[in-house]
# Entry
Amino acid sequence: MTRKARPRDETTQTAPRPVAPALAADAGPPLTRLEVRNLATIQALDLHFGAGLSVFTGETGAGKSIIVDALGLLLGSRSNTDLIRTGEDDLLVAGFWNDDVASRRVTSQGRSTARLDGEVVTLRELQDWAQRRLTIHWQHSAVSLLGPANQRALLDRQLPGELGAYTAAYRAWTEARARLEALRASERERARQLDLLQFQAAEIAEVNPMPGEEEPLQADLNRLANLESVAQGAAGAITLLSDGDENALGFLAEAVRSLNVSARYDETTAQLQRELREALDSVQAVTGELRAVADDQAPDPEELARVEARLGALGKLRAKYGPTLEDVLTFHAQVEQELAALTRDEQDAGTLDADVADLLSGVRRAAADLDAARTLRAAPLAAELVSVIRQLGMPHARLEFQLTPLAEPGAHGLSDVTLQFTANPGEDLAPLADVASGGELSRVMLAISTVLGADTPAVVFDEVDAGIGGGAALAVAAQLRNLAQTRQVFVVTHLAQIAAQADHHFKVEKSVEDGRTVSRVRLLPPQERLHEIARMLSGNTSDAALRHARELLGTTDSGPAT
# Structure
């Protein structure tokens, strides 16, 4: 994606200086830049990001979460034409991961175009690509944690060996079971097909046609059917050649004799006389053969019937399986192959029952091993998570992994795995999906990301600090800072305690220009950051507020560093 350079303004700034720790080696490329056009109150925005913890702050209603909405579009979130800035034809969001670029354009007609490195891709392809690089934990997206599959995955990602063994056993069993069910479902049809193929194969084998045999048979039939005419023709020829009062043999013999004298004196005449004698011998031989033909005036009934029957049988095969005899032979070979395959199916159906039963036993053993490993790991993992969750403003929180047996093996074992949770003292554990608020879900997600590690190189938290303050806010800030040691972390926050931990502090500001509302985002320099922290703490920038901000930032009067 090529873009012309633009003059730098307050929406465009150079990349933050690299003061934050680098990403872990296995984290993958960071998000280095975000470009936004015509999204809600943002007209034009071009942000550069560094490693570590980046925070977005601003007055209530300034539009801090628009940044999260922009990143959400790259993750495939539903495009809403209401997001397009009033009066514009489209919006554009582009994210840069070093040399890789992902973008999405949404038009006022509701059309969405996704691109990767400038090439048009499906929205699903963009989503799959971006989800390997970016995770957003916003209150309404924390619903992903409510899904049983995701809760189970939290535990199972700790057990790759047992899960892999179960997955392999389950796949082998389901494939064998599907084949057996297919064989059983088609049993009646297979029996009908077997009967038909066996009949066709027997019918062709009984005749046993040979390639090229029809033409000589047809010639024999023509001869036998016209044997009387053949005999009569031979008799007439004999009359002309030898039996008539004047015949060819007599004339030839006389011609030979008339040359006796001249042949003594002329070699040419002698040669001609020899040729006449050869002709006479040939006519005599032909006459003899013609007599045999003339004497055979009635065909052999058995031979005629045999030829007719053979041609009839071959014709019947051609009519059913032809049109040519070669087609019949090809069809017969195909029938034999299908018969062999169906016979194998019959044999497989007889033995596959036992195989499926054996494979199911293997699945149950692997499932038992998986559940044993889950049970062994569930309590320590829950304890680790609870330890962090309690630091995040929920001192009475409890959390457990609950295994519920299934009647039949499923794709992920013989048990459902769900998170049971409560944030309040005296309350019974209940499914996380039923009892956790949006802010509580965000903090549970933060604990999970801290304990288990984030799945992507960049992680975004929106409203993770909802409903907390004081020491809990400091604990949330510490956890975010800890996560930012190995991942690139973005946080939309209203808490000064979190903002003070940032490596890069961005401020979202809203103003009215030419009668239009405009949101802008700036990377704050040290002094402005101090004033923003003071505002977040006290709502003003009094000396007391500034002093408190310096204490929070851990700086001297010279001002904080970013």
